[in-house]
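[Q] Does anyone have a clean structure-token version of this?
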Amino acid sequence: MKKEDYWKKYNKKFSDFDVKKILKFLIELADEIGEPFEKKSTRGRSFKLSPTQYVALYILMVFFDMSLRDLELWSKVLVGEHI
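[A] Here you go.
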């Protein structure tokens, strides 16, 4: 039985724990649970993201101990929209 070499293990570990994959999983989980909140009035500006995407980003923020400023910068990379 041949051992898996170092770089295969390394690449597998980082492909399994990709932040975008984690975010996709969290969005799917939030969709299953249902809408976490909704806009209560027509006043004010509209949401840039769906409420489930906001919840998923905030879960990532807490999990990785990010500040709101960090989340603001990472949102462009993760979701494609600057919040």
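[Q] Thanks! Anything notable?
[A] The chain has a mean pLDDT of 86.
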